[in-house]
Amino acid sequence: MRYTLQPLRLTRSQRITGYFVVALASIMTLLQLANLCWPQAQLLSQLEFIVGQPLSQQPWRIITAHFIHLDWQHLVVNVVAFVAAWWIFAANYTSLRMACLLTFSALGAAVLSHFFAPAHSFVGFSALTHGMVGFATMQVLRGNSDIRMSIGALMLLAIVIKTVVELNAQQINWLGVEAAAHAHLGAMLAGLIFGALTPTLTRNVNNNKKAP
């Protein structure tokens, strides 16, 4: 018997979320281009989150820090991870749900860094990807059985180990700079909380199918 690999079929809602993902990746790319073409604008220093500075003096940085990157390598790695995290867990997302999750994860990253991290600054989308994985894995623990969700459990284990190592090491260089461990942890915890409080979309679909 021959088996063929079936492509992932996205619903209309999931396709819209895909366009949202592309839009966010495009914003990151445009900001990187702007930073390259107009260095005098000093976008990095304008958009980065500064740990140690009061949150009330930099509210925009809670969001903008995640959309600017140190260089093209930093951008490409984070965009690939972001798209992969969405693609694997696409069944759990709508565009509104993702927007709320990313905002909540950004707040988690900022708050935990503000109160517990030593003074530094951070940029990059990786913290929000930690939040996405935390969210999706919590959805797994609440009853999803899709194979992609099983992969998510392994991703959570890997991301927890990575975060613990980052927090306990004196200094870990990632792409040539010190990893923002507290931002990663704060966003991941926010994602876990958001996942625990949010109904699972796949479970609702399954329940609808069983209804007479």
UniProtKB/TrEMBL annotation:
<dbReference type="GO" id="GO:0006508">
    <property type="term" value="P:proteolysis"/>
</dbReference>
<feature type="transmembrane region" description="Helical">
    <location>
        <begin position="181"/>
        <end position="201"/>
    </location>
</feature>
<keyword id="KW-0378">Hydrolase</keyword>
<dbReference type="GO" id="GO:0004252">
    <property type="term" value="F:serine-type endopeptidase activity"/>
</dbReference>
<feature type="transmembrane region" description="Helical">
    <location>
        <begin position="16"/>
        <end position="34"/>
    </location>
</feature>
<feature type="transmembrane region" description="Helical">
    <location>
        <begin position="122"/>
        <end position="141"/>
    </location>
</feature>
<feature type="transmembrane region" description="Helical">
    <location>
        <begin position="153"/>
        <end position="169"/>
    </location>
</feature>
<feature type="domain" description="Peptidase S54 rhomboid">
    <location>
        <begin position="57"/>
        <end position="197"/>
    </location>
</feature>
<dbReference type="InterPro" id="IPR022764">
    <property type="entry name" value="Peptidase_S54_rhomboid_dom"/>
</dbReference>
<feature type="transmembrane region" description="Helical">
    <location>
        <begin position="72"/>
        <end position="89"/>
    </location>
</feature>
<dbReference type="InterPro" id="IPR023826">
    <property type="entry name" value="Rhom-like_SP_proteobac"/>
</dbReference>
<keyword id="KW-0645">Protease</keyword>
<keyword id="KW-0472">Membrane</keyword>
<protein>
    <submittedName>
        <fullName>Rhomboid family GlyGly-CTERM serine protease</fullName>
    </submittedName>
</protein>
<keyword id="KW-1133">Transmembrane helix</keyword>
<keyword id="KW-0812">Transmembrane</keyword>
<dbReference type="InterPro" id="IPR035952">
    <property type="entry name" value="Rhomboid-like_sf"/>
</dbReference>
<dbReference type="GO" id="GO:0016020">
    <property type="term" value="C:membrane"/>
</dbReference>
<feature type="transmembrane region" description="Helical">
    <location>
        <begin position="96"/>
        <end position="116"/>
    </location>
</feature>
<dbReference type="Pfam" id="PF01694">
    <property type="entry name" value="Rhomboid"/>
</dbReference>
